[in-house]
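Predict the holo structure. Ligand: acetyl coenzyme *A.
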Amino acid sequence: MNGPPPVARISATARYLPERVVTNADLEALVDTSDTWIRERTGIRERRIAPDDVSAADMGARAACGALRKAGLSASDIDMLVVTTATPDHLLPSTACEIQARIGASRSCVAFDLQAACTGFLYAVSVAEGCVAAGRGQNVLVVSTEKMSTIVDWEDRATCILFGDGAGAAVVQPTVNGEGILSSFHRSDGDLVPLLQRRAGGAVMPLDEDSLRNKEHMLRMSGREVFKSAVRSMAHAGRRVIKEAGLTASDIDLMVPHQANARIIEATARHAGIGMDKVFVNLDRYGNISSATIPVGLDEAAEQGLIGPGSNILMTAFGAGLTWGAMLMRW
Ligand code: ACO
């Protein structure tokens, strides 16, 4: 191994997916689209949609409790709670504080949101790693939770077919037997903000009659440009973390990429030199759950026995900002 020995690992994961399934056929009734187009262009067959009275914090709290249970921790053991979401319950205060209250961790830890869109989970695990490395805490809880159904325009066929709701959580703790984060690489490019954004609702363009009428508070995306940038940036980040860890593509046991589009996943894997038999995909069942895709994927992959002690796992992500990154971890 090339880099310094790992200091932090993911010791437990959990997920929460709402029960309601919305199929491509259901969307045919809403917009001018077809099951065939959606499957062929994206790989998505269905997605989960949360009920009106279930918020991102509610879903995140359920995933958080699951991860704590699996790690054998109670809420009062948490030193830091980092939450990633593109759909915060409120603009102020943070969704992290909402989740902190729901899981009974109030006052015992610091809680804050980290905004990096779909790349949020990887950024947050790196922040957690830094906390552990600095000796500031032993138990960091990362929660990625998204209610994307509240920010997509259900009349825009280019975006509404892509997204789903759900949450994933991970506990980050000090390394025990040399396992953990071997290398990571994160970047962002603020010049590409216009490619993917919600323009209204913040201080620059507050919600008013005009912005609401023009749906400026909804997600707007230049799909083709995001697509090209995603493949380029994730492939580069993936190759870089493999090299920095002193490994080769053939050492990777499983790649758990951000789940946005099957064609993006296939192209990224191809550029990184990883066969699709080693790539975890659940996009067909959940669509793009933004920052929750990787923790949900890790949790399912572990449950299915696809990863176990000693597995080398490559994670790659990209999202609005644009942001992107990769992380290589020994499980
Ligand atoms: N059903 C049928 N036709 C459609 C649909 C649809 N749902 N959506 C678009 N089309 C049409 C377009 O109108 C266009 O028609 P035209 O040729 O007559 O103009 C045609 O299909 C091709 O459109 P493109 O946008 O070029 O299609 P593309 O193959 O690029 O696929 C897609 C679009 C799926 C959005 C793709 O570009 C993509 O996945 N991009 C990446 C998006 C992404 O991952 N975003 C998430 C970022 S994560 C975050 O931070 C939230």
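The chain is about 35% helix and 25% strand. The longest helix spans residues 223-244.
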